[in-house]
Amino acid sequence: MAERADALPPFLERSDTDFMGLSDSIERVIRRLETRRALSEEDRNAIRALPFTYRTLEASTYMVREGEPPQICTILLSGFAYRHKITEKGARQILSLHLPGEFLDLQNSMLEVADHNVQTLTRAEIAAVPVTALHRLVTEHPAVARAMWIDTLVDAAIFREWLVNVGRRDSHSRIAHLLCEFALRLEMAGLASHYRYELPMTQEQIADCTGLTPVHVNRVLKDLGRQGLISRERRSVAIANWEGLSHAGDFNSRYLHYEEGGPGEAALAS
Amino acid sequence: MAERADALPPFLERSDTDFMGLSDSIERVIRRLETRRALSEEDRNAIRALPFTYRTLEASTYMVREGEPPQICTILLSGFAYRHKITEKGARQILSLHLPGEFLDLQNSMLEVADHNVQTLTRAEIAAVPVTALHRLVTEHPAVARAMWIDTLVDAAIFREWLVNVGRRDSHSRIAHLLCEFALRLEMAGLASHYRYELPMTQEQIADCTGLTPVHVNRVLKDLGRQGLISRERRSVAIANWEGLSHAGDFNSRYLHYEEGGPGEAALAS
DNA sequence: CGATCCTTTGATATGTTTCAAGCTTAGTGG
DNA sequence: CCACTAAGCTTGAAACATATCAAAGGATCG
After folding, report:
1. Is the pTM here over 0.70, yes or no?
2. Measured in Å, how far apart are chain A's first and last C-alpha atoms?
3. Which residues of B touch A139 (CB under 8 A)?
4. Quick check: B22 and B88 in contact, CB under 8 A?
5. Separation in Å: D29 C1' and B12 CA
6. pLDDT per residue over A166-198, tens digit each?
């Protein structure tokens, strides 16, 4: 995987000029799935043979809307995306964030009706796979189905951790936890060093991830800075003290289920 | 399925004197899975042939502990169970509730290490299936795997809804929502009329489901009663005004994914 | 029938929200 | 290249929902 040059170029440009070609992206997706379950060459070829439409989407584009039957399952090639739900009173809760290389909508695709929205966070490139093709793939290739199943289970594990975060941690911990998770996931995806990364979110979006208000998020971020745990400049976040931040956020990476192959907890050590 | 006599007998006795025999319970589990995905007779037989140990567990018994590799996957035959996580500061967040007839630990069983605890809420009867047997089953019977996959996706949908509940609804809505969900799920499982049921939880446990304190839960329950939405007597809850309660809780049953076969939203109508 | 767990209630404390305004940055078009 | 605009960030003051603390009253179980 192409090593990123460090620091400066802003997040969006990064996504625009994707270093990877399309087939490299697909290989990355396959590699990601394989960390969940061994695949045969035939399985891999079946994934490569998946019909799809390549598209570039602007930031904030809806890919799936709650209440609609999912038609396509998208693979995120570059850029970021998120799932969310909106309450009757108009409050938004962000349910999860997604990085390049992830299957975006297995959660909705295997069910009849989408129960939440999926939207791009930044400009993004996607491969849109018709759900019918996906269904055929998983029917004919049980090992792929198994890998995808496990992938969705890890998604569920992340939902659970977020539920704990929002339900039982105070505002400082919630945000610290979010920053730790994002750092580690970017690290694992080879997209950043966890000591410094571009946070592709506004403070309002951070608020919607953590069940807080944007104003309070602002104060907490400032606070975490004052405590020397992070330093910020624009949306660039540098974790100044991983030990401190992960302790503040009560962060334990177990729920990300990286045990096999990846750096996992080891990556945390300086 | 045996029709329950109405009203009086307290929850625990109900579970003790389970009307169903063991094989009836297994059939119920199969029927539940089949609502997710059609199974062949051979698939059904493979489930029936699953080796298991029958056990009765006291209330509050741990079945899986966070950090341990899951050894058994349990089918809940009678009684209730829940998943939870505990933060470093000792706060508990309940992640989900489980009713008789549900596979209890597909979430953990397919992964290497449990990331949360699973515990009985009441006294319960379970069938404990070794995970190795479960792995064999899903490898040899892709349709069963598919049904279980979808089952875990519905679990995930419930996690998401709870995340919205805890993140973006006020205390009244949260509790109203929980009461609605429980009513409908009990109804769908044929375990109660949604107008009256035994809530197998202490107010402290309700607090841990909703990210509140037990004291506040008490006040809110009293309030919901005052508003004429519910009436209570011990832990028996009667929903006096379904329309009102589901509106107060911003409750829409879509996330339970009952669309096929079951009463679903239709069950809500008086 | 004592002991324990659960529920209820009141008084007070506090974390977070709300409201409101000014400020900064990024993007756009003249 | 500057002015304009919209979006996001920052800050302060006041309000509010919920937590905390504390104690008494019920229920349940051995």
Report:
1. yes
2. 22
3. 142, 146
4. no
5. 14
6. 999 999 999 999 999 999 999 998 888 868 888
Q: Does domain A170-269 have CATH number 1.10.10.10?
A: yes
pLDDT at A259 over 80: no
Q: CATH classification of A10-159, choosing from 3.40.190.10, 2.50.20.10, 2.60.220.30, 2.60.120.10?
A: 2.60.120.10
Backbone angles phi, psi at A71, to 5 degrees: -100, -35
Confidence check: pLDDT of B12 > 70: no
Residue intervals of chain B classified under CATH 2.60.120.10 are 10-159
Instruction: Report which of A56, A9, A19, A8 is spatially closest to residue A190, judged by C-alpha positions.
Output: A19
Listed as ranges, the nucleotides of chain D within 7 A of a protein C-beta are 7-13, 17-22, 27-29
Sign of CA dihedral B125, B127, B130, B134: negative
Chain B residue numbers touching A113 (CB-CB < 8 A): 254, 257, 259
Are A211 and A166 spatial neighbours (Cβ–Cβ below 8 Å)?
A: yes
DSSP 8-state symbol, B158: H
What token pair was written down for A107? 């959660």
Task: Say how far B170 CA is from D18 C1', in Å.
Answer: 10
Strands A124-130 and A72-78: antiparallel
Q: Residue B115 is nearest to which of A85, A106, A254, comparing CB atoms? A: A254
> Which pLDDT tens digit goes with each residue over A128-175?
999 999 999 999 999 999 999 999 999 999 999 999 999 999 999 999
Q: What angle do CA B135, B141, B144 make, to 5 degrees?
A: 85
B118, β-bridge pairs: B64, B83
Confidence band for B20, pLDDT divided at 50, 70 and 90: low
> B107, A157: Cβ pair inside 8 Å?
yes
Distance between CA atoms of residues B97 and B82, nearest Å:
4
